[in-house]
Every structure is written in structure tokens, then in C-alpha cells.
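yo

u said u wanted the structure for the complex thing, so here. seqs first:
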Amino acid sequence: MREVLLALLHKEPAHGYELKGAIESMFGEVWPAVNVGQIYSTLGRLERAGLVRSATVSQASRPDKRVFELTAAGGDTVRRWVDEVVPAAQLRGSFFDKLVLADRTRLADPIVLIDRQRREYLRRLAELGELAGVAQGLAARLAVEGAVLHLQADLRWLDFCEDALTSHQKRNGDTDG
Amino acid sequence: MADLLRINDLHRHFRLGDSLVRAVDGVDLRVGEGEFVSIMGPSGCGKSTLLYLVGGLDRPTGGEIHFGGRRVDQLSRTGWAKLRRGRIGFVFQTFNLVENLTVAHNVQLQGVLAGGSRRAVRRRAIGLLEELGVSDKAKALPALLSGGQRQRVAIARALMNDPPLLLADEPTGNLDSATTTEVLGLLKRFHAAGRTIVVVTHDPRVATAAQRVVTMRDGQVVDEARLDGGTGRPLTLDRLIES
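structre next:
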């Protein structure tokens, strides 16, 4: 939330409800609903940290509003954040551990684990196929495609694991016999 | 759901030099009327051979195929040709259009072979090409079409005689991602309209458009995943991004 607000204020000064509207139009489909209280409390923290400042603007026919804008330090912070490279995703540990252990300790048949995991990924991919049909905005379409491509990679990795384990078992079988 | 297709202990073995290849090696499979099933597996696992056996384009060396309650694996060549013309539509990875016939004639050919009246055949072909968004290419030769357009024409041809069963072998294998999405949309639409579909693919995105994914390995069915009626909380857009 912190960086999102800083980035929006980098574009132009705004008050709380404008920020809420901007967040909803950009991320509305892919984020759970944001409440304005959460936005104001984050703005308060950013103000105490010297990253934003606010001024009360009086309006003729409406109550006064508090308009927030970025300070120089806030501008530096958000530019540093946006320029930072995000580390590449790691392999999900839990299934990896199960697979290696199943093979080496005979706790379970690793091929059975792979089949079960593949079913899970396929079901998830089917759900994403449905979501692709309802994703409207840019953020939603990017998110769905990202999730689809990740799952395709996961599925290919399962195929690789299966091949590697099968030929490993065959080789061991040969040396045993 | 009644079975439209029932396969019992199907085999397709052949000799290659000194060795025996077990392309399909004891497959049991049932496909219900109106069901959409996909078959996945590494190349060489026998999935395409299985589809060809089901469509009568190859003959089994053992086992049975029942279609609509009738045993068909022992049909003669002409028996199969007749069954395919009226009851089974086939879509190939390489489209297999007749290159010296126009798009419209490619589609109409199936109807004419099945004995439809010229007028009715022409009207249906035009309707299908419109439905598939390629009616403006009706008079063009296939060579002038993009891959996606060719596959649409091939689908129109497969649907010409309104077959209850549509078989597709890697239908998106030669298509880019955007065109794949379009062809997927078409398959889903025809399934929603009540058609039974069996698609062989290595593309998980295509496979998961189906209700059930069958996995093959070394000529055998080794796993099956039902994709409808999941147990967990359905996925929503606001749960895709990890925070």
C-alpha cells in the first residue's frame, strides 16, 4: 500500500478518496476491496516519515479536504523502489522436499506424487481458463497470463522430474540386477 | 450420461525392424455423450495413434471400439468412411485442406460426399464459414490463408455434417498464442452446444479447456484428472497476486 500511494502521488497531489478511486480503477479486479480508512492511516504514517505532506483546501459548497503531495524524500523513495529489480522466483520448497524424500526414503511413490500434483495444476489451469474469460482490465489480464505461464512451467517441470526419476529408477534397477 | 464412445483393452502394435512397437497397449476409455475430454502425454506416448484408431484412420491389432452403442472396430473401409462422414468430424494439426479447392468447396465436399443436396450443402457451408469468421475467404484457395484461418476452415469442414463427435489431433500445434485462444473458444462453444469432443494435445492450456484430462504414457492410460466440480474454494481474480 505504501509504495502504491507514493507512486500515485508522484503523478499528482490527491486526497484520500481520489487515491481510493485510482487504486480501484487500476487494481480493482485483482485486489480485495480497499477501505479509505486504510488509505488515510498509511498516508498518516508516510507524513510522519516525511515522505508526504498535506494541506487543507477549503471548498465553497463542500467540507474542506486534505490534499496530499509527495516531498522530495518521498519522490526519492518511490523512484528507488520502482527501479529495484525483483528477485527471480524460487522453486516452491514443499513439493520439492516431498519428491526428493519420497524417492530416497521410499516414503511414497514419487510418480504417484507427481501425478497427484499434476492433477492439482491442471485443475488450477482450468480455473484460470475460466478467469481469462472474465478478466476485463489490463491488470487482471496480466495477472491471469502470469499465473497461466507459471503453471505451464510447473507442469513442464513435473514432466522433467518424472523422466529423470523414471530413468534414475531404471538405472538403479539395472545395477541392482 | 450415456457413453458415446467405449474403448476396451485397445492395442495397436506394429513391427519396426526387429522390435515390436506397442503404440497403444491396452487402453480402456469411456467418453460420455456431450463430454469434452483431452488426452495428454509426452510425444510417442500413443495419444495420436489412439485418436486415429477411434476415428478409423488406423486399425487396432486388438481390443474393441464401441460408438453409440455399436461395435465399430471391425467395420470395413467403406463402413468406416461412411461412419466418419456422418458421425465423426476430424481436425488435424496440419489442417489437411485440399489445396486446389476453394475454402467453400473444401467445406462443401464433406456434405456432398455424405449425399446432401447441393443447395442445402451450400447453405450450411456458408453458415459455418460465417460462424467461424472466415466467410470473406470462401472463394480463396487455402494457400492464401493464415494458419488460424486454415484451422477455422478445417473446423468448418469437420462440422459440415453436424457430427455428434469431434476428434482433434493437436488442433493448435501450428498456431500462435492468440489464435490458439480463438480455436479454444470455438471448441468450448461447440461443446456448450452439446457436441462430444476428444482432443489430443501437448498444450496444457488446450487440455484444460476440457472437463477431463487423460494422461498417457508408453501406450497406456496412466492418470486421469476431472477438472469440473473442484473441492476447494474457487479461484478468483483477487487471489492471483501474492502480496
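Helices of chain B lie at 47-54, 77-87, 103-113, 118-131, 147-159, 177-192, 204-207. Strands of chain B lie at 3-16, 19-32, 36-40, 62-67, 70-71, 88-91, 165-169, 196-200, 212-217, 220-226.
cya
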